[in-house]
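Q: How would the structure tokens look for this protein?
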Amino acid sequence: MPLASRRSPRLTRRGRLALLTAGLLAAVAVAVTVTLLRSGEETPRSLGSLTVPEGRRATQVYALVDRALGLDAGTTRKAAKDTRLDLPAAADGNPEGYLFPATYPLDESTTPAALLALMADTAEDRFRQAGLAAGARRLGLSGYQAVTLASIVQAEADTPDDMGKVARVIHNRLDRDRALEMDSTLNYALGRSTLDTTHEDTRTDSPYNTYARRGLPPTPIGNPGEQALRAALDPPAGDWLYFVTVRPGDTRFSDDYAEHRAHVEEFNREHAAGGGG
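A: Here is the predicted structure in token form.
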């Protein structure tokens, strides 16, 4: 820091009054703190923190909270039903998509309801910073639909660098009124996570079956991070309609079905040999 910036400024009368006022307020704050401590109030003991990874489903977040707070399984799920969170009207009380992935401090006073409310408030703030409202309008989507799209991007992208291209594939399919055909939405319907999707699976009767139904699913399928949302709102230009992660770190995007089928066959060989994870 330059020496000049450390020189004490000359105070006007108003400046002196401001300093005196600030000093008085600080003294009052100290006095109040001392009084509280003397009356038996103690700062709640820290319990560390809880990290919610990007893309976790609400049910998975509930389980993380139960474990972090030492609660019976199902406690946080019940709290989510009983707590009025600050969510968009379109969510109809379902916090899926709005339990923002981040690290949250915990102490002895932390309750599931308070923690879920903090996650929802954090989502609102971070989505606002990412330009959710304006970006969704530009794309002809509601904010809730944009978060739903981002949740699919989060679930489908193998790496952060792939998110933009995955988002472009989704937009291209929506623009052409083609079924999204995303395994992640089908896995959400079936309550699982797998790379093995069968033809029988694609006949599942569910609004989350994007093989059988066109358009976005009715809700987010997980809780996306800010990077996935930004990719959903501003994907790169491209004609891609297909993609498959042949092996970790190697996702192939194409606009030609025959080329895509060749990539899928390579994935099947890798997966059968155990090279696909």
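DSSP finds ten helices and four strands in the chain.

Residues 13-38 form the longest helix (26 residues).

Upvote if useful.
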